[in-house]
Write the C-alpha cells for this entry.
Amino acid sequence: MSELKIEAQMRAVTGNQVKKLRRDGFVPVTIYGQNSSPFNAQVDATSLDRLLQAGGATQLVEVAMQSGGTHNVLIREVQRHPVRRNPIHADFYAVNMQVKQQVSVPVISIGHLPASARGMVLVQALSDVEIEALPSDIPAHIEVDISRLDGEKNDRITVADLPAIAGITYLDDGDESVFSLVTSRTETEAEEEEAEGMTEPEVIGRRADDE
C-alpha cells in the first residue's frame, strides 16, 4: 500500500470547459492502464502540488475515487502553466503491482567533500537515473554519498558505484558518470596566465631583435 494518497472525482467536462474547472481549484487528470479503459477525473490543485513535492512525481500513489474504489498509479506526465508553473493537467498510469516498471528517479548528493578536494568543483552529470522495480519498491530519490570523492584516486562516481537497493535494477550504462570533481575555472585560468607569462618575454625579445 502506497504512503502517498490523493482523492479524485469523476470528471464530465472536457475541452475548453476545463478552464472553469481550473479556476475552481481543480486539475483535470486522465487515468489509464493496461487493465482498464482511460477515463477522466479531477483532483484538488493544492493536494496535487503537495503530492508532487512529497515524491509523487516518481513514487507509487494511491488514488481514492470519491465514487468508490482505488487505483495504484504512477504519475507519468504533468503539464504546467508556462508562466506560473502550476500543474494544469496530469496523466495517471494505473499499474499492475506485480509487474516491474521502468522509471526515472532523481539523484541527490549527501555528505561533504573532504579537505583534499578543496578548490575543486563538484559536477553532477546525471540528475536522474533510469531504474526498474516493482511499483511498491520505487524510491523518491537515490542518495549518493560524495564524501568518497577525494580529487586524487577517486574523482568520480559512476552508475556502477550507486548504492545497492533491494528490488532495484539500474538501467543506465555502469560507466556513466553521475558525480565528478574537476579543477575550478579560476585555477585553470591562473595556470594558463602563468604559462603565458613565462613565454611572453621571449616573444617581446624576438620583436626587439627584429627592430
Observations:
- Confidence is low (pLDDT under 50) at residues 198-211.
- Residues 201 and 207 are 10 Å apart (CA to CA).
- The two ends are 86 Å apart (CA to CA).
